[in-house]
Amino acid sequence: WRNLRWPQVGEFGWPPGTMTSNTCIEFQDVVAGYKDFMILNNLSFQVPNGSITLLIGPNGAGKSTVLKTLFGLLKPRRGRITLHGEDVTGASQKELLARGIAFVPQGRNLFGQLSAYENLELGGITIGMKTTRKRIPEVLEFFPRVKERMHSLASSLSGGEQKQLEIGRALLLRPKVLLIDEPSIGLSPMVVQDVFRLLRKLADHGTTVLMVEQNVKSALKYSDDAIALESGRLVLHKSAADILADPQMERLFLGGMHTTSDAVQAQG
Question: Residue 2 in 3-state DSSP?
Fold first, then answer.
């Protein structure tokens, strides 16, 4: 998809001229967890509009929990979450989808016995079949290999093709905010770089991306900011460039996570 036409500003993300504040997502003293086990502990941070923000930290730090809490899969016990200044704390997934938030979770989340095209149709269930079928061709322009295999079973696609299909399904919603958890799992280094380039282009055209990614050093090269978590608390929020340029920061916050061979580590 490297050389394909990219949509104009407003085709994905906010229409031109509609952004009134630089802050897209804000967590304010958020506490969240499962039963009596709290994972996020008074977590506060802000994510700017039209940026890629990378969540980093050790296993169990709460990175994936941030995405699940923001997308309504986990209800906060305390605190406040806002989207463009509007309170969305505890909102349902249906409400969040209507507000322009799309989530690409970790692993494979396709219906293997349905075709690639049918999986795309299901991805647009909230916008109606007429709109979905109109948007599918424009989304497929960014995924030529998936386009060639539209009538193949999703289970027969390669790992890279399946991940592209998942991202394409999310793009049908023309999201203002894209949450993506470990997009590189099971992908070849070349496809991983393609995914990162796609996310970078989305951000450059107005979509806010909040990402958890195991290949931290590679992901930082395409990110604007990084938020480091430890035990569900914020320990650092700096620009990605600053972390990459500072050997001490790399040692403290990247450790062994910056090589492809470390792709097997568990999630936070």
Answer: coil
Bridge partners of residue 55, in order along the sequence: 212, 227
Which residues lie closer than 8 Å to 67 by C-beta, 6 or more apart? 55, 103, 105, 179, 181, 210, 212
In whole angstroms, give the CA distance from residue 10 to residue 86: 21
Low-confidence ranges of the chain (pLDDT < 70): 1-21, 250-268
Give the separation between CA 200 and CA 209, rounded to whole angstroms. 9
Please tell me the pTM assigned to this model: 0.83
**Tokens, residue 159:** 């790992």
Going by C-alpha positions, the residue among 247, 162, 208, 194 that lies closest to residue 52 is 208
Task: Judge whether 61 and 231 are in contact, CB under 8 Å.
Answer: yes
Task: Name the one residue in this structure whose structure tokens are 């079928």.
Answer: 133
- Helices 159-171 and 189-204, packing angle to 10 deg: 10
The conformation of residue 15, written as its DSSP 8-state character, comes to P
SS3 172: coil
